[in-house]
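hey so i finally got around to running the thing on that chain from the lab meeting. sorry it took forever, my laptop kept dying and i had to restart like 3 times. anyway pasting the input first so we r on the same page abt which one it is
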Amino acid sequence: MSATQSKLSNFKTMAQADVPQGRKGKHNKIVLAILDDLDRLKEGAALKIPLAELGDTKENVRSALNRATRKRGRNVATAADDNFLFVWNKAD
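ok and heres what got predicted. didnt touch it at all, straight out
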């Protein structure tokens, strides 16, 4: 038994300094890719992302994208049809 684990603990313990900070959810990769493309997107254009490439439902990816854009103070819009998710930068 390690020095940081009590005999009465139900779970293992670790130094707080070693705890990962921040959250990288399961949508992190697709959301970062969308944000990266939005940074380079010309005004008046929209990203056309195949739903098959999202790795999850369009609703869940939209929610994750919404959280990320609000956190960064970005203003984006989305739309979708049966095959694609469309994302574009909104004018302020």
